[in-house]
Design brief:
Blueprint: E1 5-7, H1 15-28, E2 32-33, H2 42-51, H3 58-78, E3 83-87, H4 95-102, E4 106-111, H5 114-127, E5 132-137, E6 155-159, H6 169-182, E7 188-194, H7 199-205, H8 212-227, E8 237-244, E9 249-256, E10 260-264, E11 267-271, E12 276-283, H9 287-296, E13 300-306, E14 312-318
Parallel strand pairs: 1-5, 2-12, 3-4, 3-6, 4-5, 6-7
Antiparallel strand pairs: 7-14, 8-9, 9-12, 10-11, 13-14
Helix pairs in contact: 2-8, 3-4
The structure holds N,N-dimethyl-L-histidine.
N,N-dimethyl-L-histidine (AVI) is lined by residues 51, 59, 161-163, 165-166, 206, 213, 280, 282.
Amino acid sequence: MALAIHFHDRLQQPHAASLREETLRGFAATPKQVSPKFFYDRRGSELFEQICQQPEYYLTRTEERILADAAGDIREIAGPRSDLIELGSGASRKVRLLLEALHPASYLGIDISEDFLRSSTQRLAADYPWLEVHAACTDFSHELALPEDFASEHPLVFFPGSSIGNFTPEEAAALLRHLHDVLPVGGGLLIGVDLVKPRAVLEAAYNDRAQVTAAFNLNLLQRIGNELDSDIDPSRFAHHAFFNEAESRIEMHLVSRQAQDVTVEGRCFHFDAGESLHTENSYKYTLHSFAALADGAGFDCRAQWTDPRELFSVHYLQR
Ligand code: AVI
């Protein structure tokens, strides 16, 4: 039986074109860089799901625990919500806790990885037959345009996983301001935010022993090789992740193992031995610094939850 999913194709982004433009621009920049949003092709999304299960990557299981423990509080504070919108929905696992606690009439999953979005929303539609399921494949970092037939008076936006940390604090402030402006008065934002902690714990999370994070980082080069006209060879690069304390962020890089020339779409780029391609920042906040960011974006910070070790936090913000 075909499941009733409202897939909003018209919101789709021209992925191949933006990968091409942004790779050419990023490889020509000093230092070289590529946006982390390009990690998430089908393989990258699968690897990210595996990262979430690594013992060192405390973020996912800690957030799940916080949400499970706070489900009753969230229901009380957020009140009845007819519509739940999930940003960066991925495998849509954590949202199940909210669907069960809040029982909204409809769900809209928004993600940049189309294949993955289709399969995860199909699973949700199968498991929750009472739920109207929508899916939109879009890059919400530019603009969150809700589908026209998804009119929502009391939406709750769920932005889990500390994905806000992959934006610079200035970009994060602009994104929060944009979400604030898109939400109707009374609309809520439930957001997961990773916290500052000892370097060893942070660095282990991005250098897991099974090397899944390394494979995830290197897959970005594989994707460039698959989707663009390029001779890039991932085996000539090494994963490097460390905590930059002054900037309060984990940085991920791909370091050239040797001096080499790489061709992309007919253009040649030189990498020195040891030269790095910066692929991701993952900013870490304190409870206080994140509340200040949300407050600056115009939100009313109604509640914060954390775990006993204060590894991770979940915030309920209201417009
Ligand atoms: C999606 N995002 C919040 C992850 C993070 O922790 O910054 C992506 C990731 N990068 C390496 N491991 C996980």
